[in-house]
Every structure is written in C-alpha cells, then in structure tokens.
Amino acid sequence: MTQQPSGRRPRVVLGVSGGIAAYKACDVLRRLTESGHDVRVVPTESALNFVGSATFEALSGHPVRTGVFTDVDQVQHVRLGQEAELVVVAPATADLLARAAHGQADDLLTSTLLTARCPVLMVPAMHTEMWEHPATRQNVATLRSRGVVVAEPASGRLTGKDTGKGRLPDPVEIVDLGRLLLSSASALPRDLEGRRVVISAGGTREPLDPVRYLGNRSSGRQGYALARVAAHRGAEVVLISAHTADLVEPAGVRVVHVGTAEQLRESVLAESQGADAVVMAAAVADFRPVDLAQHKIKKVDADPAPVKLTRNPDILAELVERRRDGELDTGLIVGFAAETGDPDTPVLDHGRRKLDRKGCDLLVVNTVGDGKAFEMEDNAGWLLSTDGTETPLPHGAKSLLSARLWDAVTRRLGERS
What we know:
Blueprint: E1 11-16, H1 25-34, E2 38-43, H2 53-60, H3 76-83, E3 86-92, H4 94-101, H5 108-115, E4 120-124, H6 128-132, H7 134-145, E5 149-150, E6 154-157, E7 163-167, H8 171-183, E8 196-201, E9 206-207, E10 213-214, H9 221-232, E11 236-241, E12 253-257, H10 261-272, E13 277-280, E14 287-289, E15 309-311, H11 315-324, E16 332-339, H12 347-358, E17 362-367, E18 378-385, E19 390-397, H13 398-416
Helix pairs in contact: 1-2, 1-8, 3-5, 4-7, 9-13
Pfam family, one: Flavoprotein
Domain DNA/pantothenate metabolism flavoprotein C-terminal: 192-410
Keywords: Decarboxylase, Flavoprotein, FMN, Ligase, Lyase, Magnesium, Metal-binding, Multifunctional enzyme
C-alpha cells in the first residue's frame, strides 16, 4: 500500500449503485475500514432500496448522502472526488456504467466520478444479457479508454434461477484490486487483451496412503494473484490449481483443479499449446513415494519401514525443452524459485543457477521460510531474465508483485511481436 503520513488513513470513496449485489458492498466496506482505510459511502437512491443508510453509516463512521443539495456549504459533490485517493463502485449496474460513460452528474455519486482524479475501479454486476449488450460493451470500452478500471465480472448464480457471467466478484477480490491501485495507479492497464496465459498455483500432494501425503506449505496466493491481475489486464487466463488454502477463484478465469505433480504436468502441457505466456508459480513436489499403500499405514510398536521416493517430472524444464524442439507452440515461459539459501550460497546465486539450468525466459526468485512467501499475504524477491537483467521486487502485496511481473512479460511479448 502507498505509504501515508503517520496517523492518516487512505481516503476511499465507495460508490454503491442499485442492484441486488449491493448487500456485498457491506463486506467490501468492512474489509476496507478494518485494513486501515477512511471510507465514505456514496450510494445512489436506488441502492438504498437494498441496503439502508444506517448500515453504511455504522460501518463507515460517516454520514451517507445521495444528492447534491445536502451539505451544500461543504460542496460535497466536488470535494469528495477531489480528496479521494481511490474510488470504488461496487456494484456498478448497467445504468450506472451508462451514466458514468456519458458524463452525467445527476446525483452525488456521478458528480464524484466526474471530479475524481485518483484511480477509479468500477465493479460491474448485472444479468448476463445486460453485460453482453452492445450498449454496455460500448460504455465499458469508453470508460476504459478514459483510464477507468472496469473489472471483469464473475460467473455464477445471478438473481432468480439464472446463472452466467455478470455476478459481482467476491469482496476479497474487490478489496485486493482496490489496494493494488492505491499502491500503483497504473497496475491494471488493458495491455494483455488478445493474449492467452496459463498459470499454475498451489502445492501438489503425493499420496502415501488413503489419508496421508507428501506436500508443501504453498497456499496458492501468489498464483491466484497472478491470475487475477492478468484477467483484469484483459488476458484470457487458465489457472491450473493444485491444493490451495480455500482461495476465492478469480473472476473471469478458467480454473482447472489438479492434485499431484503428474496431474499438474498433464494439464500444463495440454493448456500451454498456443499460449502467449506460461507462468509456473505452483510449488511442485520434487519427489513422490514409489509405492502407494492401499490401506492406512498403522502405527505399531516398531518403527515404520522407510518410504522409498522417486523423482517427479521437472515440468518447467520439460516446457522449455518441448518449445525448443518445436513440440510446443508457447511464447514466454516464466518460472518461480523458492529458495532458502545456505551457508555457502546466497538465495540469489541459487536463483541464477536455476535460471541457467532450467532455460526459462524469466525467473522469480523468492526467499522462503521463517514467515516469508509461503502462506503470507506479501512477497518479495528478484526477477531474473535471460538477457542478464536482475530486477529487485520490493516487499509488498502479492498482487503488486504480480503486476510487476506482468509488466515485464508484456514488454518481452512486445519485443517479440
């Protein structure tokens, strides 16, 4: 997050328009306030048919207004937008998108949108037919051309019995995108439109018996952040997800669930054909048991027999080899290296050796262990390239590291075009 003067909280305007998903704005508001943001809620009149002003006032600690003729002496219809460091509209209905695209200023929310000079994130929620209508698509394109970040809606259950694209993304994702824009206003350009990317995430598990397995501490958060940021930058994203810590599936992303290293390998090879970029962020088990016990291994007085292990396939190296041999039509290949270092070799040297050994185009090197990287919200490291450049990735949210990685990927893709 952007560093603020001591004691001052980032100022956020949360706009809420009149759709059934307005109730989810309460969770967005709670998460923003609890993470240290000063949030003022600006609903439309129709939004108050779904959630009353008392709820927003209690959660934000600020009065709620909808029109421009209250608190006139404070010129709120101008001041709110001028002072905001981030504006989030969730949900953004088709009507609100249309009014914003045409520059209307007939209530406090649309007036605030006209005066805001900070990042603006609009999160649509509507029925599929409304989202896909040419008028809505044109309005979205207009807003994006002006620098507004219009998020991709999720797919799932809508109102009534309908299911499809147009569902409001999970509040966790909305807050993550908002905090990313506070950290870096330029983090979500639409520079991956027309690109197809494949990302692996999570940690594989290799069964020992029906109830036990060999695994690792990867939560999948970095891979999911990579997928989320790529989708909101316009890419067609396939996320191959091994075991994760009950993470919310990113909106606009096709998720393929796998369990073992071999299952991950099969899915990655199948999905990588024709991809513009493949990012291997999953923590793949290096070894698996030679034998799988058909029944639970019982605890007895004697020590258990040693578990014989065999190597798992090196998926990253195989991707590079198949591309080199012309078997795989894949653009950039990006690896991740989770390293601890040792008394003789620092982490970065391990990363340099791995880049040489694997032959991928880019390699993200993370220091892990002792509360770093695995199972954490933040990350840091270095981005190594085959052209010899080494770029530090300062400590920050995993979504911010994701944005920096996609910046590098888009530059490399542009050089190849």
